[in-house]
Amino acid sequence: MLALLLVPPLVAIIEQAVLVAGPRHVGFWALARSVAGTCHVPWGRRGSPIVRFSLPQAEGRARVVSLPGHRESVVEVRGYQRASFGFAGRVAAPPTAPSRWRAPGLEPVRIFPEESEQLRGCSLESTDEGLLRWLLRHVETRKRVDGLLAATGATSVEILFVGRVVILRGVAPPGWRAGEAMEHIGPPLVEALRLLSSDLDDLGLALRNLGEAALSALRCPGCAGEVGVDPWICPGCGRPQHRGCREMLQGCAYGDCAQAADALPSPERFEEASVEA
């Protein structure tokens, strides 16, 4: 008799587990396994699951987002670096016009075919052309970035460098579901992120050794420029950022802040949401 009473609740629990981690999430779990990471499903099944994984000297996160102008799924991976790499920049393939919201001083960079830093079929922007060129002189990294569009199968890819965060995005072909997009586009983005993160960590440590870290409190974490007048003050951690950098990041530059665009779900935030509701 006891067994008969326990069967219905057990069946309900199993069915709910299948719904929560059902077909739409399979691609996220597959990526988490492939990168030895963990998959975090937001409370209430709202928003994209977040895959969290380790980088040599940083933390990586992957999710599917919705961006203005795109009806398709957009796979996004982020690396939160341990130190600022000193500039903001953007690489887009195929070439695109500069975005409306941007870090102060973000200007187009022109690299000629005969130069060693040249990327085919990409548009480039940076607040510090010299630092972007330094990054592109790393042969393996440049090759991976150059072939990223073909490797992902995405209709377009974008890489954002925002002070201490590197963001890679791939727009899925029409008709791809979120899980399918993550399963196919996520792995090439993660591999490119690993190379970029390692090179940017070297750059950040070099800048620190030159004494740049001593000025970090006076600078925007998004572009390493002086914050200036009327910055955006993060309501989560209180750190100031340029408003344009905040828009590029869609939140705070620090991954441990609740205002980060891909902040991890936690019981505390669930309780806050329940109280507000």
In short:
By secondary structure, the chain is an alpha+beta fold.
Report the sheet-strand fraction: 15-25%
Percent of residues in helices comes to 25-40%
Helix and strand sequence? HHEEEEEEEHHHEEHEEHH
Total beta strands:
11
Write out the strand line-up for the largest beta sheet, numbering strands in chain order: 1-2-3-4-9-8-5-7-6
Count of domain modules:
1
Instruction: Give the low-pLDDT segments.
Output: 7-22, 267-277
The main pleated sheet reads as:
9 strands, antiparallel
The secondary structure category is alpha+beta
Overall average residue pLDDT:
84
Q: Termini separation (Å)?
A: 40 Å
Rg, Å, rounded? 20 Å
Tally the helices. Answer: 8
The geometry reads as globular
Q: Keywords, please?
A:
nine-stranded antiparallel beta sheet; globular; 277 residues; disordered C terminus; alpha+beta; 8 helices
Provide structural commentary.
By secondary structure, this protein is α+β, with helices and mostly antiparallel strands. It has one domain. Helices cover 36% and strands 20% of the residues. The chain contains eight helices and eleven strands. It has a nine-stranded antiparallel β-sheet, with helices on both faces. Strands 10-11 form a two-stranded antiparallel sheet. Helix 2 (23-34) packs parallel to helix 6 (178-209) and helix 4 runs antiparallel to helix 6 (178-209). The longest helix has 32 residues, at 178-209. The model is unreliable at 7-22 and 267-277 (pLDDT under 50).
Helices, strands, pairings?
Layout: H1 2-20, H2 23-34, E1 38-40, E2 50-55, E3 58-65, E4 74-81, E5 88-93, E6 107-109, E7 123-126, H3 129-136, H4 139-146, H5 148-152, E8 156-162, E9 165-171, H6 178-209, E10 232-233, E11 240-241, H7 243-249, H8 267-276
Antiparallel strand pairs: 1-2, 2-3, 3-4, 4-9, 5-7, 5-8, 6-7, 8-9, 10-11
